[in-house]
């Protein structure tokens, strides 16, 4: 039984697909114009989204690279016991935690090999995983080892292997006293990490300083500094606290505030980048919506006109037995091919544009070599959006093609 004109055999659809491609090749000038039209819309959108992604990624990376933005500064003196430290250490939003003593006891006097004094240098407790320390820098394993900041090392003229002498001073019953001990500097912290004069020490050195100044130790010798003392302390006045990442700063700070601990963060700076990201995203979504709508209208209008130009040819196909599905398939296939070619051209244009932006502007952003970048998932989203727009554009033309009467070719319409 012969097939109805409104029905399509698989061979008929395959033939329609082939005819659609041949028609594009035959009318290649029009095809080229449509490809250039779609590419001229998609390529700028890709560059805009690449700039947005690259700049925001750079700003976020700069925030993450500066560990001070992850720090949650604990203000005032508190009574933080071992249970508090154990519970806080279990939080998934915590990046680094170490106790610290009262600020008034967290200073040290230094004397170099030439007996030059350097008074009231800040001591900062540190341990493995400290975000302020470069990964290749060792950490003190006992109270006699210290790390010097680059600023302090330059001031004291320290060279690797040179000794330093530390002093803790106190007054008991009006009589000034001091404890003298040898220090072993084991490295220098770059100024880019810590831009002030400070000594990073094992926690035991701060505990020894506080115990000595509070009169709990009669003396403090080199041997005393080698003996562990952190385990004997049950409470601390403060802590150095760092969040796991930027998104964890707010939650961790809120948890500490809920416990009555006054803290300060770089929330304002972090929120500025987030607000910038939200604003750019909204602006680009509006631009993309307008651009893709214009692309759909331009491509759809061109396909519609193409169908009108070839009404007689399409009517002849219907007369030869091609059904609605095959006739509708032709503008859909043509739209998809045009969109695919436009995507390739837009991507090549994006690559050249991104390279130009990165070469011209990349040096102006610290720490990153790019300002324009799209991840694979972004490119996949661009391809999906373009093909969806092409499909929508082909709907109207396909509908118009399906309404063509086969008898038009006989009337010469």
Please explain how this structure is put together:
The protein has 12 helices and 12 strands. The protein has 413 residues and is α+β, with helices and mostly antiparallel strands. The N terminus is likely disordered. Strand 7 and strand 8 form a beta hairpin. The protein is elongated. It has 2 domains: 195 residues, no CATH class; 186 residues, no CATH class. Helix 1 packs across helix 2, helix 1 crosses helix 10 and helix 2 crosses helix 10. The strands form 3 sheets. The chain has a 6-stranded mixed β-barrel with strand order 4-5-9-6-8-7. A 4-stranded antiparallel β-sheet has the order 3-11-1-12. It has a two-stranded antiparallel sheet with strand order 2-10. The longest helix is centred in the C-terminal third of the chain and has 43 residues. The two termini are 31 Å apart.
- The tally of structural domains comes to 2
**Helix count, DSSP H or I runs of 4 or more residues:** 12
Regions with pLDDT < 50 over 5+ consecutive residues? 1-7
Supply the helix-strand structural class. alpha+beta
Largest sheet strand order: 4-5-9-6-8-7
Number of strands: 12
- First CA to last CA: what distance? 31 Å
Outline the biggest β-sheet.
Answer: 6 strands, mixed, barrel
């Amino acid at each position: 039984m012969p097939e109805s004109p409104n029905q399509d055999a698989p061979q008929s659809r395959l033939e329609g697909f082939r005819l659609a491609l041949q028609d594009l090749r035959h009318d290649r000038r029009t095809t080229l114009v449509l490809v250039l039209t779609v590419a001229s819309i998609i390529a700028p959108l890709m560059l805009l989204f690449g700039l947005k992604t690259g700049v925001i990624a750079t700003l976020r990376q700069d925030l993450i690279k500066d560990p001070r933005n992850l720090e949650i500064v604990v203000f005032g003196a508190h009574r933080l016991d071992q249970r508090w430290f154990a519970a806080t250490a279990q939080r998934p939003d915590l990046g680094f935690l170490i106790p610290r003593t009262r600020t008034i006891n967290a200073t040290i006097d230094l004397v170099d090999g030439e007996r030059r004094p350097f008074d009231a240098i800040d001591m900062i407790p540190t341990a493995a995983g400290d975000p302020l320390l470069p990964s290749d820098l060792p950490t003190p394993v006992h109270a006699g080892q210290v790390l010097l900041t680059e600023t302090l090392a330059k001031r004291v003229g320290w060279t690797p292997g040179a000794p330093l002498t530390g002093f803790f001073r106190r007054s008991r019953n009006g009589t000034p006293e001091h404890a003298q001990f040898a220090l072993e500097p084991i490295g220098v912290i770059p100024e880019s990490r810590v831009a002030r004069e400070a000594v990073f020490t094992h926690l035991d050195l701060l505990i020894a300083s506080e115990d000595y100044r509070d009169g709990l130790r009669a003396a403090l010798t080199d041997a005393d500094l080698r003996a562990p003392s952190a385990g004997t302390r049950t409470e601390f006045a403060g802590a150095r606290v760092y969040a796991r990442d930027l998104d964890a700063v707010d939650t961790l700070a809120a948890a500490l505030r809920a416990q009555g601990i006054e803290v300060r963060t770089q929330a304002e700076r972090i929120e500025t980048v987030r607000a910038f990201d939200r604003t750019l995203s909204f602006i680009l979504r509006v631009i993309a919506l307008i651009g893709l709508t214009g692309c759909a209208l331009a491509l759809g209008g061109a396909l519609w006109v193409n169908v009108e130009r070839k009404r007689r040819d399409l009517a002849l196909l219907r007369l030869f037995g091609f059904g609605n599905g095959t006739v509708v398939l032709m503008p859909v296939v043509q739209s998809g091919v045009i969109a695919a070619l436009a995507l390739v051209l837009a991507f090549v244009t994006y690559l050249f544009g991104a390279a130009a932006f990165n070469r011209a502007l990349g040096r102006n952003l610290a720490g990153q070599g790019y300002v324009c970048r799209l991840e694979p998932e972004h490119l996949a989203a661009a391809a999906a959006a373009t093909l969806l727009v092409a499909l929508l554009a082909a709907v109207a033309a396909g509908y118009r093609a399906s309404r063509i009467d086969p008898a038009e070719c006989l009337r010469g319409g």
